[in-house]
Amino acid sequence: MIVGYVIGEASPQEALVLAEKPVRVGRYVVLEYDGVKVLGLITSVTRGSPLLDLTINDIKIVQKLKNLDTSIPQFVRADVKLLHEINSGMIPDLPPGPGTPVRFAEEDELRDIFSEGDIVIGSVIGMNIPVKIKVNSLSRHLAILAATGSGKSNTVAVLSQSIASIGGSVVIFDYHGEYYDSDIRPLNTIVPNLNPLHLQPREFATLLEIRPNATIQYRFLRNAFVNYVKEVKEKLKDGNVDYEELNTNFVKHIEDKIDEIASSEKQRQQKDAADEVKNKLEEFVDRFGGTINLTVPDITSRIKPASVNVVDISHMDEEAMDAVVSHYLRRLLDSRKEFRHRGTGLGFPVVAVIEESHVFISKNQDTLTKYYASKIAREGRKFGVSMVIVSQRPKGLDETILSQMTNKIILRMVEPTDKKYVLEASDNLTEDLVEQLSSLGIGEAIIIGNLVRLPAFVKISKFTGKLGGSDPDIKGEWSTFLNPNRIGEEFG
Ligand SMILES: Nc1ncnc2c1ncn2[C@@H]1O[C@H](COP(=O)(O)OP(=O)(O)OP(=O)(O)O)[C@@H](O)[C@H]1O
Ligand SMILES: [Mg+2]
Fold this sequence. Notes:
Blueprint: E1 2-7, E2 14-19, E3 28-33, E4 36-48, H1 59-67, E5 75-85, E6 101-104, H2 107-114, E7 119-124, E8 130-133, E9 142-145, H3 152-165, E10 169-174, E11 187-190, H4 201-207, H5 215-238, H6 243-248, H7 250-263, H8 268-288, H9 299-302, E12 307-312, H10 318-342, E13 350-354, H11 357-360, H12 368-383, E14 385-391, H13 399-404, E15 407-410, H14 416-424, H15 431-435, E16 444-448, E17 456-460, H16 474-482, H17 485-491
Parallel strand pairs: 9-14, 9-15, 10-12, 10-13, 11-12, 13-14
Antiparallel strand pairs: 1-2, 1-6, 2-5, 3-4, 3-6, 4-5, 7-8, 7-17, 15-16, 16-17
Helix pairs in contact: 5-7, 5-8, 7-8, 10-12
Bound molecules: adenosine-5'-triphosphate and magnesium ion.
Keywords: ATP-binding, Coiled coil, DNA-binding, Helicase, Hydrolase, Isomerase, Nucleotide-binding
InterPro entries: DSB_Repair_Helicase, HerA-like, HerA_barrel_dom, HerA_C, HerA_central, P-loop_NTPase
Domain Helicase HerA central: 119-332
């Protein structure tokens, strides 16, 4: 079906089309010229009339024209971004000539392009053409970005379940508690415990807020902690352990060790440092008490292949969340390295999804997670640890990490500073695509990167089944609060 004809001056990258009638942004078109068949994407559409142009300043003229029997002549213009030659896959090197006909791409032409991947994530907007993404490309990581309520969590659910269905392993850090009791299958829920026996001394010191330059404090903690862990591990080997006692007296045991070490010190300064470490240990228990458990196995032995593993961190405060997410990310990366080098450790690749990433990978704040997330962004690819960062506040994200997320699924985004920030942090995103983000509907997205051969305008599939992210029924909740008997009526 003919959309219109090229007018004005075209380049090998773009052309202006005079269209027969209004067309939707995001539709794919084909231009045939000079023996090549070029696929293009409509990136903007305008509509106007030479009779009612901007020089008109008398409303009566408009009213008179409207009252005439004949309709007002109109034109529709569309900008087309030229993507690639359909047969060769090359980027076009010649511009289309004026008058070149422009037609909608046929389903078969698009079907080939978007069926290269492994799992279906949705369909081309306005067409019945499934869009598959290449799972291997997740090694270059992914950012799922959008304004609130635009369909990020739905995308995570669809993506995760599909990855699990082909044998993959996903770990979702469930900030809002939307996934852990969802209908995603197979689901493996993980209680977000931290086992100090798996912490490195430096990691433990960071959780205690012992600063890197507090060398005396660190030395006390390190010696006490290393001794303690060694003793417990030996006891565990003998099977001679009272688990309850172990958890209850964890801090006391380490404090005893600190006292032991401090007793041989003579200087006041050393004694003060030992006391300070003890204070910090007690504060640590106040903050993370519910999370500490010396009997849980390491995260890497709790996650399952061919499953969506959900770590429900929703009941924790942000500091504790940060501790858990960073520790788990470190263990995932270390364990995959161990597997590569020695054959022990985590035997399968993982995709780690961090919801509300701007909290953990913030532009302005140095969180524990930011350190390991940036390590995974750099090294994860080699060891099979992929990262998916999800955020409704892209401009709050660390720019380097965002720019290392080669793939992006961007749903509706309106805020100009967010759009600008994402554009600057993405090599493969262009201004004309970013312009379109405000006009996307819920669940509609632009996918860029290696996941797809070409930038794709996709309506993401709706996850079928329960997912906690639906908009709350505020009116309904008021009504049930005021008329509690209604519950009885409904269920009675
Ligand atoms: N592809 C889709 N098709 C149909 N409905 C959708 C789609 N994606 C999301 N929705 C609906 O839109 C609403 C918001 O979706 P979702 O919770 O995924 O958004 P979000 O971007 O994660 O929001 P938040 O910023 O609150 O985390 C939900 O009710 C969901 O069912
Ligand atoms: Mg969400």
